[in-house]
Specification:
MetI-like fold; membrane; two-stranded antiparallel ribbon; ABC transporter permease; mainly alpha
Amino acid sequence: MSVKPGPFQASSAVVPSSTGERGVIQADGAATETVVGTDAVGAAVEASHARLPANWRRYLVRIAALVVAVMIWHLAAVNDLNLYLRFENVPNPVVVGTEFIAQLSSQTFYLHILHSMERIAIAYGLAVVIGIALGVMMGRSRFAEDIILPYIEILRPIPAVAWIPLAILMMPTEQASIVFITFLGALFPIVLNTVHGVEQTPKVLVRAARSLGASNAAILRHVVLPGALPSIVAGLAIGMGVAWFSLLAGEIISGQYGIGYFTWSAYTLVEYPKIIIGMLVIGGLGSLCTLLVRKGCAPLLRWQKEAGRS
């Protein structure tokens, strides 16, 4: 049953607007409500976002954040900002960029980078092999954990700088001492994350595999290690960052070449632009190495994406 509007009842109509406004107009000529909608604005925003892939938009945001940081650095250095942080002696980005271009034409600069990368490769490779092996042993055997864990917990809090005098006394060469210090820095995060990943493997999966007749080696290969891989990969990424930190500590004290030695010698010679160049190169190389670790381990974690799709 429908009710027709009488002479004293006002009928209403919704009138769309091209500007996104929605007006409700009464038959007696009185407008009772006007609501400003956001449909047109939202459609415009979605259309602009659709022009770029999602990953590109994220990278543009990250680049914009870095540009803002460089602008703040430039303004603070040019204006000699002195608000607790003093920028009187900090060179501005233009000066640093000019010096960096000059260093790119120097063979010694690449020699420093080559020595640092060689030390990282040796120390990190040893830390990966030994760290994962120790972590799996500790995660699978309580006896092994009781033997190894005390050493890990005692040695882990010791900073890299504190190892330098002992490393110089113990190791036959400076190269070996720097590699040893870098190895220790990368070892502990890898060990602890591996132990965590192995211990978090669901026991029901291990029992199911054992009930089907799987050997201990098969359980380790097909059940424990795949389940622990996310934690192991996280430890590898963290270990790479700590390895660079430890490497620089060793190069500053006992190195003759390396990007850490380059940075420290620039400080002793009061060459401030080179200090910032060394810091930025360290950050760039560390980020690049961590990215390579993550990308290299990505195929091993493909099962996670496949499980998510199913």
